[in-house]
Specification:
Elements: H1 2-52, H2 59-68, H3 71-91, H4 100-107, H5 142-146, H6 174-192, H7 202-214, H8 226-236, H9 261-267, H10 273-287, H11 294-304, H12 310-319, H13 324-335, H14 344-351, H15 356-362, H16 374-387, H17 392-401
Helix pairs in contact: 1-2, 1-3, 1-12, 3-17, 6-7, 6-9, 10-11, 12-13, 15-16
Length: 407
Amino acid sequence: MCSVRRVQCDDVVLVHLQNVMGTVKLIIILYTLTQLFACSLSQKREAMFAKLFNARPASAATSVAQQIVTPTDTDKFRAALFGLYVADATAMPVHWMYNLAQLKRDYGRITSFVKPKDKFEGSILNLSNTGGGGRGSDQGDIVGSVILHGKKKYWLRGGNYHYHLGLEAGENTLEAQLCRVLTQSILETSASVIPPSPTFSAPHFTEKYMQFMQTPGTHNDTYASTAHRMFFANVVRGKPPHECADNDGHNTDAIDALTLTVPVILAYAQCERSVRNAKVREVILITRRSKAVMPYAEKYADILVAGKTALEFIYLFDLLPIINFLCLFCFYRTFRTVLQGTSIRAAIDASDSDGSIRRMAQSSAPDPMVACYIDSSFPAMLVFAYRYADSVEQGILASANAGGTRT
């Protein structure tokens, strides 16, 4: 009897041992696969961003990464840039129109790309400083001689010309065109490092920026913001490029500073938050010295890229199908980023501690009309994003037709 029980007990122990060993084996397999995944992660990142920016990935990474990176991932990164250009061009003719009756009289309702009228009643272009930042004299020659070649005549007193006189329907403003210059700089810099990987270089972009701005014919916009005019006023004074960014205490602390952050956020979307946001601050500091803009820029990056591990978890699901069903609902929804398709409303809610953005967006209040100053324009941008999250087209058109600062 005892021997029978001992055999039964031994059988139970053996079964438990087999279960434990099976679990240990599974853990070892998962650990090994995870290590293999971690070792190749940098290669996957390289290929993904190479496809994003149309650069050639390193040959060692190509075969593996191309199997993992899906067109959907790539398309959404490209769409972030494409959306920027479309929204900028759509709102261009009504930029800084604070009189809605005037907006409707001159353009009706914006529903597509429109060429701006030559004259703009209420334009402050003719009050702006042609030799530096803010308002001031039209006797300076930064505008017309150093940058915006041939455009100074539109800045003279009494002119009332449109800020973007000369642009055609669907053409981008200077700020969006500088975003292209930055993207090209990232392309060139990324191709020069070994192995090729998305890389932003402040000196390289500064050189490209200065060349673009000082070369006649590179663009046809008539307006350049205070930050650019102050930068090139310092260039004329003989300051080295890395010391030319400036601040007038008012006009430089504006939402247009965020335009150049978009390619950088994309390039460093999978990096640690501290690394990504350091690069975001670095690109802003090239053209303006604005402490006020920095927290908004970092918040903007955090909303777009909710967690560095987003794509890593997606890749993990592809590589480790054995744990798909165990992890999918635990991690995928938690770490998926806006750039990967997460609801923009959820991302804004996570950063909106008092719920003010959600309440404003869900209210019956008209779409906000604000000036360019970051303290008011950034919350307004989030209200538009939240209110029109279900339709990018409706959001862009609503923003254009709301008046105020739109590019």
